[in-house]
Each structure stands twice: as C-alpha cells, then as structure tokens.
Amino acid sequence: MSTIGARAAASALVLAATLACALGARDAHARLRTDLRGAQLYATECAPCHGPTGRGDGPEGVYFNPPPRNLHEGFLALYETDEIVARIRSGQPLTIEIDQVALRRRERMVEDIVAHLERLPDVDWERVERGAELYATRCAGCHGPFGRPEEAGALPEQPPRQNLSAPSFQKSVSDTKLLELVRHEREGLPRIAPLDASDARDVVAYVRLLSPGFELYSLWCAGCHGDDGSGVGEPGVGVDRPEVVLDRAYLRAQDPKELRRNVVHMLESQEGAMPHMQRGLSEEQVRSIVEYLRATDKSPRPSPQRK
C-alpha cells in the first residue's frame, strides 16, 4: 500500500465508519457484501456533491447555490426505486448555479494543486514513502496527517504546534533546522525516541512535500493519478485509468491555462448540471446506488407518491 498520506486507508476507514454508523454495528457486516458495490459507486459518483451519507454536505457541494439536496429529506420516500433510477439516468438535467465566491476559493485551490504538480518530477519517492511511514507513527498524532496540527485534536493545555504545511514555515526553515526539529533536538520540544540520521532525513523529505497543494492532490487526485502522478492509483484502473502521466515532459508541454482547466474536471464549463456524471452509468449501477442509499436511510418513509 502506498505510504504517502494514508489516503487510501483513511478512505477505507471513512467508508467503514459510514456503513457502521448508518446500518448499526450488529448488521453492518452482514449487509456489507450486498451494499459495498453501491457504496463504492456512490462514493465516487455522488458523494463529492451529496456528501458521504447523502446529506448534501459533500466537498464539491459548497460551490453550488443552492447546495445539493439532502437525499434523506423526502427524496427517497417520495418515489419507488424504479422511478428514481429512471430520473437519474434519463431525467431532464437540472441546471445548477455556480457560487462565484466559492468559485474564487476554488481558483486558489487550483493554484495550490498546480504548484504541487510542478514539484512531482523532482521528488525522491522512495525516500518520501519511507518518511511518510515514520511520520504517520511518530508525528501525525500531534501535527496531523498533512502537517496541520488542528487535525490532530491537541488538548487545550498543550502549546500550539507549528503548521508544517504552511508555505511561510517551509520557506523560513533550513534543512539543517528541520532535521533538528524532526529529531526533537531543539529546546522545548517533547522528548521522544531518537531517530537515526537516515530515518530523520526520510522524514524531512516527507515534511518538505507538505503543502496545501499536497493535501488537496492527496484527497482529490492521487486516488487515480497516484501519489507520484504516474496514473497507477486506485481506483484509477480500467476505464478510470488516467490517460496522462504527470511527469516533467507532460507539464512542460501544457499551456498554463489548459493545465489549470484540467486540474478541476467537474468545473470545465461555466455551469453544472444534475445529472452531471462524467460518463453514463448503467441501470444496474444506478440501482445499486439507490439501494445503498435506502439501506442507510433511517428517516420515516411515507407511501411513495407520483408527481
């Protein structure tokens, strides 16, 4: 398993936690086998807008006005599964207005990702992966998986910790000073088991990779494109396998504007629409998504009505 940001492991944990909370601990295991396909499809096709449990709180949802609907508030109760499947596959697309303020925030995020992409060809990935393993066990508990200490749940009485991913920090600290920090050799740092020089340099290599763009790429892009941009991530296989390798030759060949348009696949045009799948889903696939949502829906279900 890739050691760069335990992204895949974290995604698996989130999915397992979602199923366990929604279905209940007693029957989650029994239903996992039948729900897993729908859960996987939902996670890739729907969750970015509708959220991990269908509450309308997905990371992409903040860019639309109004936001995506909560699928557990009436939608599942109003229609039978066959009609929902038909509406999703062949219904009239619903135009979605882009929130311009949120879009400007997205533009900043695109710039962060592009900055990270430009670093990919120069990374010593073997060293970084070793450092990521060490960081996960020694550092993430205090500094968070992506170097932001607020992700680590520090106790109120603990002193504030440095945001390792902040560009200002990365620019201000030399490799020598960073090596001292990694080995906790500076006064005031908690005493932990010392790292040997080689391991410490591996951790430094990983910490140097930390940035807002690294976090965004890890969460949104590396699943298909791979941590190193080689296009061998999961689920980037089969029809989902990226057609490009994000190497130096590719980056040099790209027009800057085109590269930025390619970074965000969903916002390639000025308006979004639902359904806005990148490719068509079969009736069987849509049905498995709806059945997964029904299995996790705990709201009262009145008799279906037709409009």
Descriptive account of the structure:
By secondary structure, the protein is mostly helical. Helix content is 52%, strand content 3%. It has helices spanning 7-23, 25-45, 47-50, 75-78, 81-90, 100-117, 125-138, 140-143, 167-172, 175-182, 197-209, 212-220, 222-225, 248-253, 256-263, 283-296, and strands spanning 64-65, 94-98, 272-274. A three-stranded antiparallel β-sheet has the order 1-2-3. The longest helix has 21 residues, at 25-45. The protein is elongated, with a radius of gyration of 22 Å.
Key words describing this protein structure:
307 residues, mainly alpha, three-stranded antiparallel β-sheet, 16 helices, 3% strand
SSE inventory with pairings:
Layout: H1 7-23, H2 25-45, H3 47-50, E1 64-65, H4 75-78, H5 81-90, E2 94-98, H6 100-117, H7 125-138, H8 140-143, H9 167-172, H10 175-182, H11 197-209, H12 212-220, H13 222-225, H14 248-253, H15 256-263, E3 272-274, H16 283-296
Helix pairs in contact: 1-2, 2-16, 5-16, 6-12, 7-11, 10-11
Describe what is shown at a glance.
The protein is mainly alpha-helical. The protein has helices at 7-23, 25-45, 47-50, 75-78, 81-90, 100-117, 125-138, 140-143, 167-172, 175-182, 197-209, 212-220, 222-225, 248-253, 256-263, 283-296, and strands spanning 64-65, 94-98, 272-274.
- What would you call the shape? elongated
> What is the arithmetic mean of pLDDT?
74
- The end-to-end span amounts to 49 Å
For the biggest β-sheet, the strand order reads 1-2-3
Q: Which class do the helix and strand fractions yield?
A: mainly alpha
Question: pLDDT under 50 segments (min length 5)?
Answer: 6-34, 266-272
H/E element order: HHHEHHEHHHHHHHHHHEH
Helix content: 40-55%
User: Biggest sheet: strands, sense, closure?
Assistant: 3 strands, antiparallel
Number of strands: 3
Report the sheet-strand fraction.
under 5%
Q: Mind telling me the C-alpha Rg?
A: 22 Å
Total count of helical runs of at least 4 residues: 16
